[in-house]
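In this section we walk through a basic example: taking a raw amino acid sequence and producing a predicted 3D structure, encoded as discrete structure tokens. The instruction is simple. Fold the sequence below.
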Amino acid sequence: MKLVRSTWRRMAVWVMNLLTLVSLLTFSVIASAAGSPLETKTLTRFHDPVIVKTSFLTGLPTSHTVGYRLYSAPQGIVAPIPFQFDERDPSGEIVFPRPDASREFTFDENDELVFMAKDTGARILPDDLPPENNGIVEIEVTDPMNSGKGWAYLLHFPEPVPPLSPVTYATFDAKANQARTLFYTMDYYPKRNFFTGMRIHAIAGGTGENILDRMKFHIHPTFSLLFTTWSPLITEQDMPTTIDGVKNGPVRAIRRVRQSLDLGQYFPAIPHGTTYTYFYFSSLMTPSTFTVPWLALKLLRELHFVGVSDFRKNALGMEYWDDANPDGLRFTGSDEAHVVTTEDHDWYVVSGQAGTHLQAFMIPDQWRQWGIVRGTIFQDRNQAADQDGPEDELGSHAAGYSLLNMTNLRKSGAYAMNLAIIFLPRRYQLGDEVQPLAMLKQPLTIRTHVIQ
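The resulting token sequence is shown next.
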């Protein structure tokens, strides 16, 4: 009897082991099926947002944002990824939700679906996606530089709706006047539109210490009419700013401000319009429009522009690179270096133990064709040197741009510009500027396809 019991016990253990093996094999088959892509992901762009005009989202069961989820399979596992819908009015302005109102809305052809290119995955079968949905749109994202591709899937669900991704990449705190993202924290000066703090987080290779004293600019035009000249000096302090709207979404935070120009007690404040800043997990962008009136262009005789970042003493030991200085320059605080070049460049990098960031200043192609140059400003000295010009007030450690030959402007009108800061996840190595610049110069292309 004992032998029979022992035999049956061993047989039961063997059956249990067999069932465990079968269940493991079944699980591996299911996981493999879910992760067997139609095409593997080859897209390598890291910093880029993907902005899909809702006019491309046709064939869906509803235009109301409630019930939508975005999925991808970057590692063979289908999972929700962060996304947001942003509403724009017919003129293209962001519609900011009231604090007490729902963030959901009914989109039309002018609105945007936003997610990050790094969150895309392989191309998969509809059966691999969560069931019980009543609509799927496949979004194919392509890098125009090398044809790399990645995919995401927008699904609509009736109730109950699956959970969202728990990840939030960026927020803007209007009370603190501070942007906080996965990679960085930026502080604004009160009631102005310039930064007084930059902290690069450990996840982005930084120490979290503030390396920025403030950002500065000097605009010094000279206008001539008959026997009279007028030459005002405009700085970052002369642009009073009021926050006009804030939106925090999982993918990006948006800040809009209204600015005016204060030319002193004898002049009324001149409205300057609105400015947006878009904060993503590893970058921020401030697109703007520079308007040149016909009369101002006619009367302009000179125009000096300098825009720099003044760094704190803890920037000592950090290095600077740009196209005109490929060998790099170091902040030492001892050699009193003051480098000014007249070679055009659209980016520079400051990198060191406290972290790495790239700043890009994009100007219209026409300006470059007319000979307008973004010159280098690099300053490393113990104290301000005696010199003429708007560089007088720069700090001990400063880097930025000058705009040269602005009197070459030939046409009045509105010109699009963009200032971007991209935080790199390691110390700078030659070539690390390629992807951030591609984001600004060669944006990703998008194709959508209803598959269910």
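Looking at the output, two observations stand out. Confidence is low (pLDDT under 50) at residues 1-35, 384-392. Residues 49-165 form one domain. In the next section we compare this with other chains.
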